[in-house]
């Protein structure tokens, strides 16, 4: 089954509880939480306190995307706060295998994220140990950026690679997913779709998610 993961980066933070309830009712499969530290990426967002608050109002799995330096230092706090899935960037992990083990040892799912210029080959010796690969289709740091087209080839390469090796990690795409791009992204072999501005910027979240599903399944 394909997964739609709205990113709360584009939600209205003056009413986060209501936004989470609305997005759950609209049919979100995961809720994507973008954590930025002002070091790995230019902007600063939120930490475990928001994950803990979200956990109190929704039962949808919380998918935490760590765009931070030294993620090992913060992973236990995000796990305690209620994260159900955590992804870390290959570019920020010196001992990636150890970081993945740290996440998996707590019983939750682990993902590895790749920046647009990072090759799929960097996953060669970690792919069999992870639950999902997060392919960034914009440079991480901000919502509302334009989808980078060569990402489609990257998804196809990764999909082929995994089929050859009989591996089953999900492929998640993040950045510039919208009504115009989602069909091609799905056709390339994507399993999980993160979308911030295209969902939270729309008038009717349910209608937008349903329209995405039609395009994904077409
Ligand atoms: C970007 C974040 C994304 C962001 C996507 O650094 O990782 O999750 O929210 O935003 P849109 O869907 O607006 O491109
Ligand atoms: Zn993200």
Describe the structure.
This protein has a single domain (3-216), classed as Aldolase class I (TIM Barrel), CATH 3.20.20.70. Helix content is 36%, strand content 19%. It is built from 8 helices and 8 strands, in the order E-H-E-H-E-H-E-H-E-E-H-E-H-E-H-H. Strands 1-8-7-6-5-4-3-2 form an 8-stranded parallel sheet. Helix 5 links the parallel strand 6 (132-136) and strand 7 (170-174). Helix 2 (48-57) runs parallel beside helix 3 (71-81). The longest helix is centred in the C-terminal third of the chain and has 15 residues, at 151-165. The model has no long low-confidence stretch (mean pLDDT 98). It binds D-xylitol-5-phosphate (DX5) and zinc ion. Zinc ion (ZN) is lined by residues 7, 32, 34, 65, 174, 194.
Kindly list the characteristics that best describe this protein.
single chain, 218 residues, alpha/beta, TIM Barrel, 8-stranded parallel beta sheet, binds zinc ion
**Overall helicity:** 25-40%
**CATH superfamily heading:** Aldolase class I
Radius of gyration: 16 Å
Q: Which fold name fills CATH's third level, the topology?
A: TIM Barrel
The first-to-last residue Cα distance is 13 Å
What does the main sheet amount to? Answer: 8 strands, parallel
Instruction: Provide the β-strand percentage band.
Output: 15-25%
Q: Look at the structure and give the mean pLDDT.
A: 98
Shape, please?
globular
Quickly give the CATH architecture.
Answer: Alpha-Beta Barrel
What is the domain tally?
Answer: 1
Look at the helices and sheets and give the structural class. Answer: alpha/beta
- Total strand count, please? 8
The CATH top-level class label: Alpha Beta
Q: How many helical stretches?
A: 8
What small molecules accompany the polymer chains? D-xylitol-5-phosphate, zinc ion
Uncertain runs are none
Strand order in the largest sheet: 1-8-7-6-5-4-3-2
What string gives the helices and strands in order? EHEHEHEHEEHEHEHH
């Amino acid at each position: 089954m394909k997964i739609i993961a709205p990113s709360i980066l584009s939600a209205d933070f003056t009413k986060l509880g209501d936004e989470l309830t609305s997005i759950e009712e609209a049919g979100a499969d995961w809720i994507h939480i973008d954590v930025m530290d002002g070091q790995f990426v230019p902007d600063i967002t939120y930490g475990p306190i928001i994950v803990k608050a979200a956990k109190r109002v929704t039962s949808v799995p919380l998918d935490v995307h760590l765009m931070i330096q030294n993620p090992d230092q913060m992973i236990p706090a995000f796990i305690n706060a209620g994260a159900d899935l955590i992804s870390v960037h290959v570019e920020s992990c010196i001992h990636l295998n150890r970081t993945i083990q740290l996440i998996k040892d707590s019983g939750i799912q682990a993902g590895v994220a790749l920046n647009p210029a990072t090759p799929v080959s960097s996953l060669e010796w970690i792919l069999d140990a992870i639950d999902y690969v997060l392919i960034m289709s914009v440079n991480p740091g901000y919502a509302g950026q334009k989808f980078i087209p060569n990402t489609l080839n990257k998804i196809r390469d990764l999909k082929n690679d995994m089929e050859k090796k009989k591996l089953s990690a999900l492929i998640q795409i993040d950045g510039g997913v919208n009504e115009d791009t989602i069909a091609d992204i799905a056709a390339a072999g994507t399993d999980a779709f993160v979308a911030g501005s295209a969902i939270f910027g729309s008038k009717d979240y349910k209608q937008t998610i349903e329209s995405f599903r039609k395009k994904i399944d077409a």
